[in-house]
Amino acid sequence: MELTLVGIATGNPDHLTLQAVEAIRAADILLIPDKGEDRQELADLRRRIAAGCVEDDKARLVSFPMPERDPTVSDYKVRVRRWHDAIAQAWLDALAPYPEARKVALLVWGDPALFDSTLRIAERIRKVRPLDLKVVPGLMSLQVLTAAHAIPLNRLAEPFLVTTGRHLREHGWPKGIDTLVVMLDGECSFTTLDPAGISIWWGGYVGMKGQILDQGSLAEAGPRIVKARAEARAQRGWIMDIYLLRREVPSASAP
């Protein structure tokens, strides 16, 4: 079986690459994760993207229930590994009725290489059946965020760090870095920082219908973002957001 992980950016069909469109059209089966009613919009977006690419009835859209993490497991990495095991089994169960399928595609938000575990889950499949694994890269939400705000990702000749909300909460601002991109943050972890001298560029549903943006000093924009995020999540039942933080530096180092 050939499994292609197709990066679809943020769900905006305009962000699909030609390579992504070709991979979707070539598939015998398109796997669609079902994350429940509160995230039905995400499954519907995948279906609309597929429908816009597939010109005939060649490809089957096969849904599978997305397992949830076990909240009773206290160790974070153990909890995630077990979750990945369950997802891999869900893929196998969904594909079992189609032994003749040779080309399978899974649409992945953003790019499979960055803070996405689809590649790790695919490796579990390789342990139980032959698998030719391919990846089609996609636009990442951090690129869509910086484009939406029309800002550079890094300062001149300076590095940046992509991290998670959990790491920011548990370890604080890393030394030697003035620009942070924070992903997978469900708790507005920027509120744990001393806001002095920090600016934030935030986006919810970046690149999608209903995109929300805000930016400014963390002291002023932070409370607005917390409120806007909570309201948007309550209205739509889910939210995906990302933000960039930048600390002030001496003027000689500024862009």
TrEMBL record:
Domain of life: Bacteria
Top EC class, one word: transferase
Keyword field: Cobalamin biosynthesis, Methyltransferase, S-adenosyl-L-methionine, Transferase
Domain (Tetrapyrrole methylase) ranges: 3-219
Reactions accelerated catalytically: precorrin-5 + S-adenosyl-L-methionine + H2O = precorrin-6A + acetate + S-adenosyl-L-homocysteine + 2 H(+)
Keyword S-adenosyl-L-methionine: yes
Gene Ontology BP annotations: methylation
EC number: 2.1.1.152
Pathway(s) of this molecule: Cofactor biosynthesis; adenosylcobalamin biosynthesis
GO molecular function: precorrin-6A synthase (deacetylating) activity
Protein name per the record: Precorrin-6A synthase [deacetylating]
Gene for this chain: cobF
